Amino acid sequence: MKKKIALILTAVMLLSMVLAACGSPVSGETTTAETAQAQESPAEGSAGTTAAADGEDGLVITFVSPLLGMEVWLNAKYGAEAAAEEIGAQVTWVGPSSIDMDEQVRQIELAIAENVDGIISCPLSPVIFEDVYKRALDKNIKIVNTAVDSAEDTRTAYIGTDYTNFGEQAAKNLSEKLGGKGNVAVLVTSLDSENQMSEMKAGQAWLEQNAPDVKIVVTEVTNSDTAQAADKTSAIIDTYPDLDAIWCLEAASPLGSSQAVAERGLTDEIVILGIDDTTDVLDLIDQGAIWGTMTQDFYKMGYEAVKMIAAAHNGESVPSVQDSGTTLVTKENLEEYKNRF
């Protein structure tokens, strides 16, 4: 029991790191959708939503989300539905409304019992998913992981953010914005947030090699808490009055940092780079409170996961690992980004 509780706590932290505190799940009943745009209420007891494409003989795919109503996962849902419509497949959207890996596993077991063609999921604690994944593979059901990966022999493919590339791109963008010179503070969830530390180290290495006059002068922990981010930002400004930029590696930090910077009257002097495309972060960009954000492309994760399952089902070779890429969003491309789908 203690081991299971520890795994669940680890998974909660991992989701916070991967999704960068992207928002709260939506409560209430789920819905059934013919497309992402047209929705109606399902029968009582429905586990999730279904996007049905034309044709009853197409592939049947179950997308087991770690959080049904979380904003970034809804983007993944829309991507999966768009791909399903293109190829004449059916995607069923299921999962818990709060972190519950047992429920994720139960939904995968139901998908296996229904003999679906493919399953898309995010194995927050991979060891918990290994057995059910192997049972799915034994029935020739294709498994594609998104955002978090499991052992290569437990799934068909993985699509998600390449954290080294993410860090390098963030560093490059900051360097260009700062004109190749400046002092940068980094805000992270915790110092043992593996993905965030990987991003920061990759970014720091890129700066040392390509922009040595842009220096990371301090790294502070926020615990993905807006108030802590504000307090830490104020303390950083006191200690480093010549600070030029703040690089946030989780999505609560831009909210707190922008508040603290604004209170000091330094909004036009300190560049803030956030992470992910939550509504709050995009609103801050629109208001001019922060410069930009590095997004993780959850829409592409969902879209490409469906295409991978279709290709694998047809006997085609698919990459074991695919980087879903990242996009820098600033005020210059904000509206275009919002209207991308």
From TrEMBL:
Pfam families found in the cross-reference section: Peripla_BP_4
Q: State the InterPro entries in the record.
A: Bact_Solute-Bind_Prot2 (IPR050555), Peripla_BP_I (IPR028082), SBP_2_dom (IPR025997)
Q: Where is the Periplasmic binding protein domain?
A: 61-316
The record's annotation in PROSITE patterns points to: PROKAR_LIPOPROTEIN (PS51257)
Q: Where is the signal peptide?
A: 1-20
Which domain of life does the protein's organism represent? Bacteria
Principal place of residence: other
Keyword Signal carried by entry: yes
Query: Does the record bear Coiled coil in its keywords?
Result: no
Record's keyword terms, sorted: Signal
Q: Where in the cell is it found?
A: Cell envelope
Question: What is stated as this protein's family in its record?
Answer: Belongs to the bacterial solute-binding protein 2 family.
Protein name in UniProt: Substrate-binding domain-containing protein
- In its UniProt entry, the species of origin is given as Christensenella tenuis
